[in-house]
Write a structure and sequence with these properties.
- The structure is a single chain.
- With about 350 residues, the chain is α/β, with parallel strands linked by helices.
- The two termini are about 20 Å apart.
- The protein is globular.
- Helix 6 packs across helix 7 and helix 12 packs across helix 13.
- Helix 8 links the parallel strand 8 and strand 9.
- Helix content is about 35%, strand content about 25%.
- The chain is built from 13 helices and 15 strands.
């Protein structure tokens, strides 16, 4: 972990990136087309992320002869095979030099079998990218007809749902309400902190999908809950719930609260120890940390071994001053992480 940067104007200056993922056939392109038709998504750079020799058959890009095209609504669309970091870097440079139409956000559609983690890590791997981009949110689409079966038999589908900030159930018109209700309950068991909605004719309110993350150094408490999910004191019942649902593939979600402020070095040791021991199983970590000497909370966001450079907000949103960390893990229980933090903190 690096030393936190000042949050003043830093968040606002970075380009937000929304990741749209979901299993094969979940309707990502249909939702993307509907989103791009909205004013909220104007001036977006759209990346269709393909790998190797996978054919590009999306309606959105099927007529593209080159890798970049200006869409009718002013958005920029490109197809990337392979190195996402290089693509983001080249796009920013082209935008700054005027060789590419200006864009105010990036919307990335992943392949249906993609593990979201490498995509989320892309802007953490390169210091130059973290100066220009920030992860705004992960949107996962789940097929209303096939979703339960996919969650039961496919670990990729479970992981896509687990790391999401927003979950959209699609194709509700092709099934009955009881099936949708069952699927929604399963998704809440996997990821109780994500906002979940049902698409209507492939469309969702753009405000539900965009501006999920923290975009300024001064935010209201509502913005924190929008990003982290509703505040919950304990998740013991939820942890138990995971053991009773085989389709979760040992995914565990919990929130830790800390009453006392952290010394910066102590918190860094906690993170370093946790990532060195179980980094591969830390699917996602995000939250606010009360660090001694800081006027506002430090924003933390990480995926497995990699953490985004922390940013300090200019002020606390509301009266709450406790540190709050949301963990999404593969097989790491709440008590394990809580005990690790307690042991490191006891050493001073």
């Amino acid at each position: 972990m690096t030393t936190p940067s000042s949050g003043r104007d830093y968040l606002r200056s970075r380009i937000p990136m929304t990741v749209i993922t979901g299993f094969l056939g979940s309707g990502k392109t249909t939702l993307l087309n509907a989103l791009l038709a909205s004013p909220q998504a104007a001036n977006s750079a759209v990346i269709i992320n393909e790998y190797g020799d996978v054919g590009v058959d999306h309606d959105l890009v099927q007529s593209i002869a080159e890798s970049v095209k200006l869409l009718d609504n002013g958005c920029v669309c490109c197809v990337v095979r392979g190195d996402l970091e290089n693509a983001l870097r080249e796009m920013f440079l082209a935008r700054r030099s005027g060789q590419m139409a200006s864009f105010e956000r990036v919307i990335l559609e992943t392949t249906g079998l993609a593990d979201p983690a490498p995509v989320m890590q892309a802007i953490s791997n390169d210091a130059a990218l973290t100066e220009h981009y920030r992860l705004d949110g992960v949107v996962t689409l789940v097929d209303g007809v096939q979703g339960t079966d996919q969650l039961t038999h496919t670990v990729e589908a479970v992981k896509q749902a687990a790391v999401a900030d927003r979950i959209v159930i699609t194709k509700s018109d092709l099934t009955d309400q009881a099936t949708i209700d069952k699927l929604m309950a399963e998704l809440r068991a996997i990821n109780p902190n994500a906002g979940i909605t049902v698409a209507q004719n492939g469309a969702v309110d753009p405000d539900f999908l965009l501006s999920v993350g923290l975009d300024r150094s001064r935010v209201a408490p509502e913005a924190i809950d929008r990003w982290l999910g509703p505040a919950k004191e304990h998740n013991h019942a939820h942890d138990h719930d995971h053991h009773e649902h085989g389709h979760t593939h040992n995914i565990v979600t919990f929130t830790l609260w800390f009453e006392q402020p952290f010394k910066r070095a102590t918190f860094e040791r906690c993170v370093e120890l946790l990532t060195s021991l179980r980094g591969a199983d830390l699917l996602r970590v995000k939250g606010l940390v009360n660090v001694e000497g800081e006027a506002g909370p430090v924003v933390i966001q990480g995926v497995q071994h990699l953490f985004h450079p922390p940013v300090t907000l200019a002020a606390w949103p509301g009266a709450e001053r406790r540190s709050r960390l949301v963990f999404i893990t593969r097989g790491i229980q709440r008590e394990t992480v809580a005990n690790l933090f307690a042991a490191v903190m006891a050493l001073g």
